[in-house]
Amino acid sequence: TIYGPNTSDPAFHRGIRRLLLTFRDTPIIIGGDFNAVTDPGLDQSQPGAGWGSGGRALPLYMATLGLLDIWRVLHPGERDYTHFSRAHNTWSRIDYILVSEALFAKIRRSDISSLHISDHARVEALFDCVSDGPRTNSWKFPRDLYDDDLFRAYIAEQ
To answer: 95, 120, 115: which is closest to 38 by C-alpha?
Structure first.
């Protein structure tokens, strides 16, 4: 999970990019409040208000690492927002779930929830976690739990 600074901090985004580069050969799922927009024309209620505190850093490391903004890919051209700024009276989409291109085929859907208590709306994603190949290990219930009185009492209560 990421919480990007809401003031300009290029060192933060350089650090995130460097950290993610260490996982370059690993599928990545990362989400959070990046405090940056990837497309000022679509992701702000007042287009042209700027890129946010992340500047152009977020789209840059997305491109470098092959990360996709799953909501935008599934909803091209659509306007929806994840944050309302009372100070500026504007809406922006600054919260994301980013995934490696290799994982994109596993995504069934992505939605932005309604704003309720927070000043941020939740970004949701549903992944298909079914294995593509044969299972090498089968999970088995730990047999010693059958003899554990505390565990059996807990299950009985449920």
So the answer is: 95
